[in-house]
Design brief:
Blueprint: E1 4-10, H1 23-35, E2 38-47, E3 55-59, E4 62-70, H2 71-90, H3 101-118, E5 127-131, H4 138-144, E6 150-154, H5 162-165, H6 171-178, E7 183-186, H7 189-203, E8 212-217, E9 220-228, H8 235-245, H9 249-258, E10 262-269, H10 276-289, E11 297-304, H11 311-331, E12 339-342, H12 348-357, E13 360-363, H13 372-379, E14 388-392, E15 405-407, H14 412-424, H15 427-443, H16 446-459, H17 463-466, E16 468-469
Parallel strand pairs: 1-2, 1-5, 2-4, 5-6, 6-7, 7-9, 10-11, 10-13, 11-12, 13-14, 14-15
Antiparallel strand pairs: 3-4, 8-9, 9-16
Helix pairs in contact: 1-16, 2-3, 3-4, 6-7, 8-12, 9-12, 10-11, 10-14
The chain binds GDP-alpha-D-glucose (GDG).
Amino acid sequence: MGRVVVVSNRVAVPRRGEPTAGGLAVALKDVLKASGGLWFGWSGETRKEPSPEAKQLRSGGIDYATIDIADADHQGFYAGYSNNTLWPLFHFRLGLMEYDRGEAAAYRRVNRQFAQALMPLLGPKDTIWIHDYQLIPMAAELRALGAKQRIGFFLHIPFPPFAVLSALPDAEQVLKDLLAYDLVGVQTKHDLGGLINCFQEGLGLSPDATGGVRGEVAGTMRRTQLSAHAIGIDTRGFATIARKAAYGPDTQRLVASMGDRSLIVGAERLDYTKGLPHRMRGFAALLAHFPEHLNRVTYLQVAARSRNEVASYRNLRRELDQLAGRINGDYAEFDWTPVRYVARAVARDTLAGFYRVARVGLVTPLRDGMNLVAKEYVAAQDPEDPGVLILSQFAGAAESMEGALIVNPLDAVAMAEQLDRALRMPLDERKERWESMMRGLEEQTATRWAESFLAELEELPLPEQNLLWA
Ligand code: GDG
């Protein structure tokens, strides 16, 4: 295997005193370490005139290289086209999507700048792996500069069908940009269906017998393999963190504060794709329709603030503040607060301990590429007394987590019914469901995901053998 070069918008550069990285960063670092690899991306800084050269650092057998973005492009690239156009679009939220040609141009410029800064750092035998919606055009920009290496792309978020994608004025360009890759990976079979549908309807290209499409990039025909690779977590590692954290001071304080009530837990970035208002309404419906749970159950929601520079995120924050206040106003007793709503991040270990002592993990996105919280909740459980996962049918994780109670988050009463069922579920059924999910999680780890994507990419013919002259 040659050197692996990972490119992502943000880079998990190791910093002294920083908390443990998440499973994704750990998995990428594992494959990078194994190949003496390079991780390249945005420094998180902006500058009036960014330098064309990347800042470099070597640590733990991995090279890191980051660049700054121009002040003038930052808004258009990041808060604009990435997070206010592509993010809502790929999550099927056309009503929230905005479009601005200037922002589309800034997005392209930043991708070109990424390609220009990476090009001098590349060796001829490197395998390049680009991540996520912020960097879709990067391979096309690298090819324009003469890159001949294998380049793979993985989309962490859903891939919608063309009926949705076509709302984007640049829909065709997005698909053509994907043709510059040798391999395009998505999370689930469902997303792969969306991707294939887009190539068929948008560019008139159908996959061949082995799942690739052929199309023209800059005058030459290329073949792009399409496939699904479900991301996982560091299952064993997370289970260990949770086991230890359960005896830590935070979890012990939480347990003491609960008395003999049951805990329902939710945790995510404060993002409109995660279905947080729907979840609160589902919990309120539990209290309204199943009054036996009044004063017997508490719902703790951790909602780490995110993308505050985008208006739809600020609006969501206001909506949640109001909803939590309303539910507590309607149902609280002087000694019981039904909703504990924490609108900021908590430490990863603490979160793991909270998952372990929660009888129910409530994960109800309206759309989600995979959803790692669902997997972490399951990994964190005590095998002798596991809790129950309630999972939205719209999370990629629902494709493989059959032991979960599956809900449509738009139906508050259905959510209440599943909550009631979960809170009353006998130990035998909880164990059976948990064991079936845990078996899957032990097989499909984050490391396995990274290795299987890279193995598929490296088995493809080199781009030069792959060029079919038009
Ligand atoms: C994208 C896709 C896909 C959450 N709150 C806190 C906290 N978290 C951690 C969780 C988990 C991670 O953040 C969130 O991962 P998700 O997968 O749930 O969601 P996205 O951030 O939207 O990720 C998603 C993923 O990419 C990977 O491909 O699964 O579908 O949207 O690890 O535990 N961590 C800490 N404090 C918090 O308050 N420390």
